[in-house]
């Protein structure tokens, strides 16, 4: 999913990044695939190369950095001639063929990253055209072209369309837009998990509440992508029949707020194991709740992440750091001081070094923590039009 890519606190990023200890993840290099130059992280990129690179570039732009040319070139080099992206192409110089499994999630993530990077309008346009070409008749998208639509894929494509300057409501197949698809996954209020969103209906047609899909669907219903800012509080806080995207968002926001109210985090369960905290989905929930104007539960979840998510980010690398940065951005928190760790330095250390925009260079160099005006202006200007949304752990968990 999706972010999740700080507001007033941007003024402190430079000094905090310099002062706080870096904890850059250094997982063992893949024994199967050589990690190419320009790609962030040391782990096997086979299943997440484009995703983690895209999240990294979006997070860097949100912080006021211009990503390194090598990093952007690696991402653009992954694009197929028809505009699509696969999770990873080990031989990007070779034409895409039937063995290259392009998917909507990687393509939508790349759109958001390249739209944020500027100067890549042709690549973005080709990717958007491909996404439009594989839209399903219900208005949504599946993970792979031709697969049944699901909440997560539909929502990350909504974020891509928004980032590219296209109104998702105008992208239609058989008369239906992605906003028309979302209510079908909203669980009725009188059922278990009422208000939540399912990933998709199971084989029996039943909808099961899924916190990751709910966070993704909430952002999708709001028309947001990976980057979001705190929105206006919703008019209601109770579940009602979801016929429109606004009603879907209200219900999903109320469900997520209740889900994090007790512990401050979401949980995931593996077969035969006890429920465990889900760091990635909790970070996504922070972004979604903030975008929905539910800042108090979002702050509670962020505080829990700040106390507990450091080791998780160190182990999981670029996408995890990017998710936490996007969560910090959504609430105006300080990504340069995340529980004593600099998310900024930790992420940037995992690949080619980005550089600050010239308008913000003097703030970075001063390292005295003073002054918020320039960072505020730069931060607001950079995020305008990027769009927000969902992160790797949940998406990969849900793909068919």
From TrEMBL:
Q: Which residues form the Prenyltransferase alpha-alpha toroid domain?
A: 68-188
The protein's matches in Gene3D superfamilies, at most eight in alphabetical order, are given as: 1.50.10.20
Signal sequence span is 1-24
Q: Which UniProt keywords apply?
A: Membrane, Repeat, Signal, Transmembrane, Transmembrane helix
Chain segments annotated as transmembrane: 373-392
Q: Does the keyword NADP apply?
A: no
Q: Does the keyword Membrane apply?
A: yes
Name of the protein: Prenyltransferase alpha-alpha toroid domain-containing protein
Q: What is the species listed in this Swiss-Prot or TrEMBL entry?
A: Streptomyces canarius
